[in-house]
Amino acid sequence: MLKTKLAGIKLKNPTVLCSGILGTSAAILKRVERNGAGALTLKSIGPQPREGHNNPTVIAYESGLLNAVGLSTPGYKNMEEEWKELQDIKIPVIASIYGGSIEEFVEIAEFVAEKKPSMIELNISCPNTKKHGQLFGFEPDVAGEVVSKVKAVSKVPIMPKLTPNTPKLKEVAKACEDAGADAIAAINTVGPGMIIDIETAKPILHFKTGGLSGPAIRPIAVRCVYDIYETVNIPILGMGGITNGKDAMEVLMAGANAVGIGSATYYRGIEAFSLVSQELETLMKEQGYTNIKEITGTAHE
Amino acid sequence: MNEQDYPQGTKIIEIKQETPTVKTVVFQREFNFKPGQFVMVWVPGLDEVPMSLSSKNSITIKDVGETTHALHAMKPSDKIGLRGPYGNGFSLKEKNILAVGGGFGTAPLKPLFKNTNIKWIIGARNKEELLFTEEIDTLICTDDGSKGEKAFVTVLADRELATGKYDLVISCGPEIMLKNLFKVCEQHNINAEFSLERYMKCGFGICGHCAMDPTGWMVCKDGPVANSKILRELKEFGEYTRDKKGEVTSL
Q1: For A289, phi and psi rounded to 5 degrees?
Q2: Which of A18, A126, A176, A224 does the annotation list as catalytic?
Q3: Which 8-state DSSP code applies to residue A129?
Q4: pLDDT at A126 over 70
Q5: Is B105 part of a structural domain of the chain?
Q6: Which of A128, A173, B209, B241 has an alpha carbon 20 to 30 Å from A73's alpha carbon atom?
Q7: Could you give the number of structural domains in chain B?
Q8: B104 and B185 belong to one structural domain
Q9: CB contact under 8 A, B48 and A56
Q10: Whether B135 contacts chain A with CB within 8 A
Q11: How far is B103 from chain A (nearest CA, A)?
Q12: How many Cα atoms sit within 13 Å of B154 on the Cβ side?
């Protein structure tokens, strides 16, 4: 009942671990697999070893989370052990990558495609560094160029992850599809935002600003997925504040074929994957749906 | 999840020099906590690091890096940010407990000084680095023999456990020491609860940085206290850790 497909990849259920959450080592990814995820996304892999920002990098506030981890990565060449360990994982593994230039995206994608992940996610939407981030996802022509050049070197399906922080979201999505993207992930974090500690009068995050996630951004995610669905024909991995089965159904109705689970692990623990799946299944039965495909895009009819 | 998972500024009210390299920072905010739990300590503009509570309103820290150095340089009325408490703490279900503190690893055990079911072993490199030994009736050892017995804590623990009087060993200290102490516990077939440490970002179980191989046991949320069953599973215990980049480095 919960089976779905994303760019030809079969998922036993629509819950996909979002990039940047619990994706730092094969050991923790296997634990997420044991907790019922339909697919896993690795933490974005970059060109060179990078420490990211000092802490605080991740904090939670009244209605969501704020993070500026700063793309910490061992670098794509220093992960042989992890790749080896990842071979034991039975569910689809999506490798997320980022670069500081289109050439770096291509270089990493070429290397990573050889490791045979089920899909490569292009992180063209991180708001938390000065140079490697959402710049690539702001303009349709730039996003399209990243996708087409990566597509040329990768036999693995390509899924750009889009930022909600551009007024040209639909145009970016269309450009990605035209450039050969096999699916679209949306959305990355919103903002950036800032929280100031009033005792010390200092912004709390070390990078000062950070991307918002969690329940606070769900309506933005729903709107973005809705807009993207109206614009493209490729499948959508919808994410942004989904914490229960009802949220998942909402994003599917907006047009997603699968849903990302990220901040939900803060609210519900690593069990979030199986919980969201169970709740979604119950809702589907109540409402008379027999498969995920029937739900996708119903809000547009 | 805590009511509030972002750091809140609080005033430092006292700084106590405990040893030449260890200070206790006492702050205004008080935590309702379980011994072994930790807080994330934010030094504005610098960094935020996990520290076990040595009382409801203090941390006891060794000057080992940039952030601890900054904390050591602070004065009363300076402000730091705190969030927590996080983690599981010691379960202390058993009645006859041997507590072993190595170096400033004695700090997270300090909240248990009032517990009368506990026999204590405190060790350090030399007599100057012995922590809190004046505050409690304890067996003492130093690496150089400058006070107490000239031996590692594992030697004293081995001898104590041979008496058959104990059913739990709790400890905190350098991980190599913990690894050796764990061997002693296993030889005597006695359950252990050890407080572990890994690089952390969120502190509440979502970034995955402190997850240990091969089970993905998270020091911040599942720990920091691991029992014997967990310790047997953790192949990286006493062997390696992951740095800020996520790269494996040996201990």
Answers
A1: -85, 145
A2: A126
A3: S
A4: yes
A5: yes
A6: A173
A7: 2
A8: yes
A9: yes
A10: no
A11: 26
A12: 15
User: pLDDT in tens for each of the 251 residues of chain B?
Assistant: 676 899 999 999 999 999 999 999 999 999 999 999 999 999 999 999 999 999 999 999 999 999 999 999 999 999 999 999 999 999 988 889 999 999 999 999 999 999 989 999 999 999 999 999 999 999 999 999 999 999 999 999 999 999 999 999 999 999 999 999 999 999 999 999 999 999 999 999 999 999 999 999 999 999 999 999 999 999 999 999 999 888 889 98
Nearest chain A residue to B236 by CA: give it.
Answer: A27
**pLDDT tier for residue A133 given thresholds of 50, 70 and 90:** low
Active-site residue A126, yes or no?
yes
Answer yes or no: do B206 and A21 touch at CB < 8 A.
yes
B120 and B188 within one domain: yes
> Is A100 within 8 Å of A132 (Cβ atoms)?
yes
User: Which residue, B180, B18, B184, B20, is CA-closest to B107?
Assistant: B18
* Domain residue limits at B65: 8-86
Which residue is it, tokens 């279900």? B93
- Does residue B101 share a domain with residue B65? no
Q: How confident is the model at residue A129 (pLDDT cuts 50, 70, 90)?
A: low
CATH number belonging to domain A4-300: 3.20.20.70
The b/e string for B119-151 (b: 16+ C-beta within 10 A; e otherwise) is: bbbbbbeeeebbbbbeebebbbbbeeeebbbee
> Any idea what the CATH number is for the domain that residue B79 is in?
2.40.30.10
Nearest CA in chain B to A52: B245
Amino acid A131: pLDDT: 65
CB atoms A28 and B8 under 8 Å: no
A52 touching B (Cβ < 8 Å): yes
Spatial separation of the C-alpha atoms in residues B251 and B232, rounded to whole Å = 18
Q: Where are the domains of chain A?
A: 4-300
Q: Tell whether the model's pLDDT for residue A202 goes beyond 90.
A: yes
Clarify whether residues B74 and B37 are in a common domain. yes
Contact A197 B7 (CB under 8 A): yes
